[in-house]
Predict the structure.
Amino acid sequence: MLNAFNAMSKMKEYSIFQIIRIVSIIGSIIVIYLLGIPPIYVCLSLTVSEIILFTLIMAYSFQTNLIKWTISFKWCKKHILFGVRALPSYVVLDLNSKVDIICLGILVQIIQS
């Protein structure tokens, strides 16, 4: 959702929400520390930050009418077809970065057995 502001050249909003993301991550980590929650739960700071950011972005988008509820069948078909065509490239791109890890895992498993 944040990248939509970048795509619409709304850099002021984009930068403000980026700052909110960073501040909420740091704030969540501080709250976790102050409450004495075990350090293993620090990863929750990312989830909390994204929930806060999503809520604020949706509220802002509805208030400024950036989101319109007019959805047509033609629009849905166009976006679904684009997604179907783009999916293979994203799968290859994602697997490309993980092939080394998969191969090393297979080799380690073979050596250990």
In short: The CA atoms of residues 53 and 59 lie 10 Å apart. The chain has a mean pLDDT of 86. The chain has two domains: 1-69, 70-113.
